[in-house]
């Protein structure tokens, strides 16, 4: 169709069953689609939480001046702003987070005039692109992907609304592909085709996935996609393919993440005979990676995940690797401190609570102590030691995070039948959440969302709905109220219908049409996983109605890709219904 010399060669090596892992956009949706106790632990992990609308507007304004952001200057850190931030961070050589922060604002404004800043970004971009290009060119398999794709135009004679008649994932993916050709800015076109490649892979259309990737002319995104291919193979249980593809990833940090996914997949699939060799490879990757903090974080998370899969010896071996990296001579003190925090948090998660808490007491920075104490409190609650869990939670100084932990422990108490303790903890969580400063709006919304879910666990649905209405972030409010409504349905179907209506209204209020499609697709998959097929169909119909009216090439292409991915998700068997 639009062949590149790389396609036949790479396709031959990566067959059979080449599947791209969905990029961050779809990964985020997948996490939201399977909410469980672990999801309740999640907190806004910004290095510098920045929620003040005026400051977000300054970020948007700076990014617009650079030609990176095309959305409104509204102070809302939605998906369009997040994508622009990721693009800026990538071009400027920063750690890519997609999150607004004080550090990001300072970075944008520190260069002064936009023209001078643009020159610096272009120089950094050129350096990073050249490094990625050199890395890819060293391998005969990936070298062909560097061919610059010809500029294409969308077919103006096609029926742009055909997919709304057939309603198939393949049709929406194909229309996303065609629409993406009309995106004028090649940076946004790159991001769109990256997303579309992921969706075609999810649809098991390997060849078109590669054809989409061949249209990406940023070597950095190609490296990311190769990493995601390896992770996708691992997640699907294709161990040999995952190992082979991981070795094609030229960047050590990205390769480390791919091999970490491979190790976890081997344990999950009972393929432990080669696990020691993979862990040795992980040690090599971690040693070669430039960003030591990132490597330690990957190792710590892997250790926790391995322990969760009952692979205790492997988890300990990986933790030892993390400690060795944190103890490297000459490592900057801030990196050593962050590494110690990550390792201690992992120790808490694998049950070594006393060691973790002792480590936390020796960390001078309360920001670094917080994730360790949080992980320890969660583990103690899971173990049924509510007294120590509460005592540990009380040591968390930041009121943005303490109510999240209190809400989690309250759920544990409710499930243990200790209603009084649960109610007392929720009262404390409410008091803390109400004290969160207005400028930390998302942190406040997140705390309210965890309290809402804990109230639902206590079957106080009236209180849960009332608290849910206070969640300012519309997307988060929609997801939480949707879960409450599903739990409520067994007790009061009429009340549950009203709560579902509130959730749909929240999804419709998330901002742009693209934002609304995202939110409604998420609700559709959440509803399916909660066993409510009617709710899933209703949310999906609303998303399709919005998609039918979209016109912007970038928004339409990415929204159609999301619709295709969601339709495919909805055709798969539901996961076990989670508790609220």
Write the layout of secondary structure elements.
Blueprint lengths: L5 H9 L9 H10 L3 H5 L11 H13 L13 H13 L10 H9 L3 H24 L2 H4 L19 H4 L2 H12 L5 H17 L3 H8 L5 H17 L3 H8 L5 H17 L6 H14 L3 H17 L3 H15 L6 H17 L3 H9 L4 H18 L2 H8 L8 H14 L3 H16 L6 H17 L3 H8 L5 H15 L4 H16 L4 H17 L3 H16 L4 H19 L9
Helix pairs in contact: 2-29, 4-6, 10-11, 10-31, 11-12, 11-31, 13-14, 13-15, 14-15, 15-16, 15-17, 16-18, 17-18, 17-19, 18-19, 19-20, 19-21, 20-21, 21-22, 21-23, 22-23, 23-24, 23-25, 24-25, 25-26, 25-27, 26-27, 27-28, 27-29, 29-30, 29-31, 30-31
Distance between the termini: 47 Å
Helix content: over 70%
Q: Flag low-confidence runs.
A: 1-51, 111-118, 575-580
Shape by Cα distribution: globular
Structural class: mainly alpha
- Tally the beta strands: 0
Beta-strand share of residues: under 5%
- Radius of gyration, whole Å: 24 Å
List keywords for this structure.
disordered C terminus, 580 residues, single chain, globular, disordered N terminus, mainly alpha
In short:
The chain is an all-alpha fold. 70% of the residues lie in helices and 0% in strands.
């Amino acid at each position: 169709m639009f062949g590149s010399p790389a396609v036949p060669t790479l396709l031959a090596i990566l067959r059979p069953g080449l599947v791209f892992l969905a990029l961050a956009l779809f990964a985020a949706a997948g996490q939201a689609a399977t909410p469980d106790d672990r999801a309740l632990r999640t907190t806004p992990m910004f290095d510098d939480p920045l929620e003040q609308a005026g400051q977000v507007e300054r970020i948007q304004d700076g990014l617009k001046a650079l030609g990176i952001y095309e959305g409104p200057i509204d102070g809302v850190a939605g998906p369009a702003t997040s994508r622009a931030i990721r693009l800026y961070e990538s071009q400027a050589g920063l750690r890519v987070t997609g999150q607004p922060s004080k550090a990001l604002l300072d970075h944008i404004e520190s260069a002064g005039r936009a023209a001078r800043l643009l020159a610096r970004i272009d120089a950094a971009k050129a350096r990073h692109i050249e490094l990625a290009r050199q890395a890819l060119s060293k391998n005969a398999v990936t070298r062909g992907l560097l061919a610059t794709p010809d500029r294409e135009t969308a077919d103006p004679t096609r029926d742009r609304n055909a997919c709304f008649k057939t309603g198939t994932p393949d049709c929406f993916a194909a229309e996303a592909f065609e629409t993406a050709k009309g995106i004028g800015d090649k940076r946004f076109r790159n991001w769109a085709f990256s997303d579309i490649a992921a969706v075609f892979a999810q649809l098991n259309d390997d060849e078109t996935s590669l054809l989409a990737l061949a249209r990406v002319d940023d070597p950095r995104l190609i490296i990311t996609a190769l990493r995601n291919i390896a992770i996708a193979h691992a997640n699907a249980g294709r161990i040999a393919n995952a190992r082979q593809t991981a070795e094609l990833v030229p960047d050590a940090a990205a390769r480390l993440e791919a091999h970490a996914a491979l190790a976890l997949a081997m344990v999950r699939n009972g393929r432990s005979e080669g696990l020691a060799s993979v862990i040795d490879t992980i040690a090599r990757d971690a040693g070669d990676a430039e960003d030591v903090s990132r490597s330690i974080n990957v190792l710590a998370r892997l250790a926790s995940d391995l322990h969760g899969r009952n692979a205790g010896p492997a988890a300990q071996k990986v933790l030892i690797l993390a400690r060795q990296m944190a103890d490297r001579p000459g490592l900057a003190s801030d990196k050593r401190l962050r590494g110690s925090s990550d390792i201690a948090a992992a120790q808490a998660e694998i049950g070594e609570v006393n060691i973790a808490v002792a480590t936390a007491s020796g960390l001078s920075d309360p920001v670094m102590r917080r994730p360790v104490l949080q992980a320890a409190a969660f583990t103690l609650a899971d173990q049924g030691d509510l007294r120590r869990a509460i005592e540990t939670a009380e040591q968390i100084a930041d009121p943005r995070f303490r109510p999240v932990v209190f809400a989690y422990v309250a759920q544990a108490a409710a499930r243990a039948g200790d209603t009084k303790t649960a109610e007392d903890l929720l009262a404390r969580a409410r008091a803390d959440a109400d004290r969160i400063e207005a400028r930390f709006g998302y942190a406040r919304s997140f705390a309210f969302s965890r309290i809402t879910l804990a109230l639902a666990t206590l079957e106080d649905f009236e209180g849960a709905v009332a608290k849910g209405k206070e969640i300012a972030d519309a997307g988060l409010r929609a997801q939480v109220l949707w879960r409450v409504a599903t739990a409520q349905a067994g007790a009061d179907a009429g009340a549950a219908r009203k709560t579902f209506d509130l959730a749909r209204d929240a999804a419709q209020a998330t901002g742009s049409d693209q934002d609304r499609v995202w939110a409604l697709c998420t609700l559709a998959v959440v509803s399916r996983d909660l066993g409510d097929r009617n709710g899933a169909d209703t949310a999906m119909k609303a998303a399709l109605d919005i998609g039918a009216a979209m016109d912007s090439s970038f928004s339409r292409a990415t929204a159609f890709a999301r619709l295709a991915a969601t339709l495919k998700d909805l055709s798969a068997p539901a996961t076990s219904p989670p508790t609220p």
